[in-house]
Specification:
Blueprint: H1 14-24, H2 26-46, H3 52-77, H4 85-91, H5 95-106, H6 113-138, H7 144-155, H8 157-180, H9 188-200, H10 207-223, H11 230-246
Helix pairs in contact: 1-6, 2-3, 2-6, 3-5, 3-6, 5-9, 6-7, 6-8, 8-9, 8-10, 10-11
Length: about 250
Amino acid sequence: MADSTQNGPMPGGAGGGAVQFLMANKLDTAMWISRLFTIYCSALFVLPLLGLHEAASFYQRALLANALTSALRLHQRLPHFQLSRAFLAQALLEDSCHYLLYSLIFVNSYPVTMSIFPVLLFSLLHAATYTKKVLDARSSNSLPFLRNLLEKLNANQQNILKFIACNEIFLMPATVFMLFSGQGSLLQPFIYYRFLTLRYSSRRNPYCRTLFTELRIVVEHLIMKPSCPVFVRRLCLSSISFISRLAPTVA
């Protein structure tokens, strides 16, 4: 979900109020800038306007910018670093830690378009929320066209988060396929599985867990139809049982 900032709009002129707001919230502003840069790099990877070779470099830049954003957000959530198992366990509960790990998993791998969408969309949602706060600090009715776009984006937030969760799930078999095609490392599927279990157990974002449940219901509905071949039904039921055993226990 989008970050929350406790500091409200500050008094001043149309431009001065926005500048004062940005200066008063330096850490949030730094994350806003890094998210905008992530969006920029992700867009140039998805739409390789500067060529395929440059697109690969923009892929890495987007993931590195996302890693920076995640590290800043983690520092904001847990400002007092401690080299202990208790601190690590607490850090692993944070979504920002999950996506710091996510960026490190894919930053040096073969570019996969599917892997950039969660980074792009999360950055877009968070940046849109903070942009609206900047506009509010500037003026209550400034840039109505941009405000309208931000409102439409916010109205579709639930669908976007479900799409992100769907990407997170289907990247698991994609990492296995990359391994057998020679485009991934041996450790990548195991590390990504750990990331996926963290997303499944997330306290702030239940969409990964919800999508797993919805996919299971859909598959079970389809395979129970009389037209479904018996071997397909058995294969799907075995796969569901195997995946269910791998799922972590959620408190």
